[in-house]
Design goal:
The chain has 270 residues and is of the alpha/beta class. Helices cover 45% and strands 14% of the residues. Helix 4 links the parallel strand 4 and strand 5. The N and C termini lie far apart (49 Å).
């Protein structure tokens, strides 16, 4: 029996990267999954692949920042699967670059997805969870929401925002049997790196190589795969985490534990 057998999950930004890995892992462990994303072709292909592998899945197109689209997404989920038990609020975009070079338009565009989109996700999902007697909300933040990073001020502001939003929401929803936690990945090999833009829509930042960044800054020495983050999401979504709410799960290879350069210096001196 799977760890989330009989549960129903809605995953935002589910067509690729961490979101796609979450969809696959949750389906493999027994959940029915509604894959949502702006990427229709990718989302439909993923849902079809999950079904072909023996899982239960459907796709619904969704822009998380569009409030008018949310009632339809909830109706699609409950109409297809009868209930809603798990939300993985994963959709996000990245605009990297110095804060003083970022336009207000880019600031708002990034936070419309990364912060407003999470707010809208829970605003519409939690009432559906209440009807089912409880559930689990997993909000995808980042280690950029835990510590400052040059060039990530705008991105980090949104990710820090959803971190605290998760804690407050956990307190508000506890009496309903709904747990709320945040996940904070470090350097993960996902399409986000290739999609990240510079301020003012200056184009893709081809220099963002997660493997090179991880080799220089991750104590474990490597970038993680999306499935490693999905494993943490599965735990928080499952009954194994029945007493876990308002918490932060950091999956970063040791990055927030300290400076890897200092660690290497100690090794070289010994």
């Amino acid at each position: 029996m799977g760890q989330v057998e009989g549960k129903v999950a809605l995953v935002t930004g589910g067509a690729s990267g961490i979101g796609a890995a979450c969809c696959r892992v949750l389906a493999r462990e027994g959940a029915a999954v509604l894959v949502t994303d702006r990427d229709v072709a990718g989302g439909e292909a993923l849902a079809a692949a999950i079904v072909a592998e023996g899982g239960r899945a459907a796709f619904h197109p969704l822009d998380v920042a569009d409030e008018a689209a949310w009632p339809g997404a909830i109706a699609a989920c409950t109409g297809a699967f009868g209930r809603l038990d798990i939300l993985v609020a994963n959709a996000g975009i990245a605009v990297f670059g110095p804060a003083l070079e970022m336009s207000l338009a880019d600031w708002r565009r990034q936070n419309a997805v990364n912060l407003d989109g999470v707010f809208l996700s829970v605003k519409y999902v939690v009432p559906a969870m209440r009807l089912g007697g409880g559930g689990s909300v997993v909000i995808m933040s980042s280690i950029a929401g835990l510590r400052g990073s040059p060039g990530l001020a705008g991105y980090g502001a949104g990710k820090a925002g959803v971190r605290m939003f998760a804690k407050s929401l956990a307190l508000e929803c506890a009496a309903d049997g709904i747990r709320v936690n945040s996940v904070h990945p470090g350097i993960i090999v996902t399409p986000l790196w290739g999609k990240a833009t510079t301020p003012e829509g200056g184009g893709r930042n081809a220099a963002l190589d997660p493997h090179a960044i991880a080799a220089a800054g991750v104590p474990l020495g490597n970038a993680a795969q999306p499935e490693e983050v999905a494993a943490g999401v599965l735990f928080l979504a499952s009954d194994a985490a029945s007493h876990v709410t308002g918490s932060e799960l950091v999956i970063d290879g040791g990055m927030t534990a300290g400076r890897v350069a200092a660690l290497r210096a100690i090794r070289n001196d010994s």
